[in-house]
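User: I'm preparing a small set of examples for a lab meeting where we compare how different chains pack in three dimensions. I only have the primary sequence for this one, and I'd like the structure in token form so I can line it up with the others. Please keep the answer compact; I'll paste it straight into my notes.
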Amino acid sequence: MRKKIEEKNNSVTRRDFIKTSAAMGMATLLSGRAAVFAQPSNKLRVALIGCGGRGKGALKDCMDAGRHIGLELEVVATADWFKDRAEQAGQPYGLPESRCFSGADGYRKLLETNADVVLMATPPSFRPVHFEAAVNAGKHVFMEKPVAVDPPGARRLIEAGELAKKKGLSVVAGIQRRHQTVYLRTQYAVANGAIGKVRGGCVWWCGTIPWIHPRKSGQSDADYMVNNWVNFVEMSGDHIVEQHVHNLDVANWFIGHPPIRALGLGGRARRKTGNQFDFFGIQYDYADDLHIQSMCRQMSGCYNRAMEHIVGSEGSTFGDGSGMDSHKSIDIPDFPGHDNPYVQEHIDLLNSILDEKPINEARNVAESTLTAIMGRISAYTGQIVRWSDLTENQDSPWYNLVLKPTAEDFEKGEVVAPPDDVIPIPGRADT
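Assistant: Understood. Below is the structure token output for the 431-residue chain.
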């Protein structure tokens, strides 16, 4: 949003207007005069695509962020595959049914509204198509991670992100550790030599299956896959992509670039739905003798761990700064922020719009998504997978790997669900 308010030949930014309005209100209160002020017309309008638990949470976080910085926000539309979910998400904000869209093309109708900021929390397979459409429509975007399930989708999202830069649009992704004070302080310390040169480390996300939604009698393939998306690789990318991307993003961030190759393994022991693995172990090679060992697992009754550990030539640290062993004194800035990093990422998005200083996290989150995809492909096939296989080498069997059904298949009504409980076998799989 780059419009300005002209008043007596002076250009006043949106932030200045809000500050001035607040000051006028306070002055009136202090003077003892009673007055009623109209709500400032200068506000941001927000819309949500994907109205499940994370989507509704993201919308609440965004509204909390607006209140935190004194910005008026108005929810103007919701969209979800299921109509009732779109309506439930809009109900707390007084949205009429006509502004709660559904179906595969619901996002298109939402993008035709007057929304300034669009939040995206659909299954990841839809993200490249929805993000591209939002950028083309001139919307600022918050999108949940991950942002693709296959290499072409990630490349498509990077391309749309570059267009967003040219348009001056802000793009923030749900990799909230990059907005969290303790991580910002740790990354600053590592970047400034607190543990010497980064030499390697480990990243983990070991937990349980988030949920399983068994197929209902008479349920269509499309409805079943959307409702049980977290258990299908075609929808989520598998949990190494959907969940472990957080920790892999921290590794890429602290090291400064994505890995050049991956060799991994994985398997399935307990899942009774979908077609994903239960566990992965990946060795990521970042060149220059720097390796990150990745482990992720979704199995009940096992030890849980979700964190990162970075080892340098002169010390080590966990990603959140705990247990830092440093042999160099670093003057670390404050990095003030909200106690809730899920709110802080929206604060950063809204502030970038108000200050007319767009930020763009599309490439960062897409590269971290590709890092996870690279590990998944290696585990599924048993082969070494190189970064160039996903980004440059068009002769690679994985460069044009597309997981189906795609987002376009959902819009065309051509969804055929893969069979449950049929998984890749390393050495024989082609995905």
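A couple of notes for your slides: The chain has 15 helices and 16 strands. The two ends are 42 Å apart (CA to CA).

User: Perfect, thanks.
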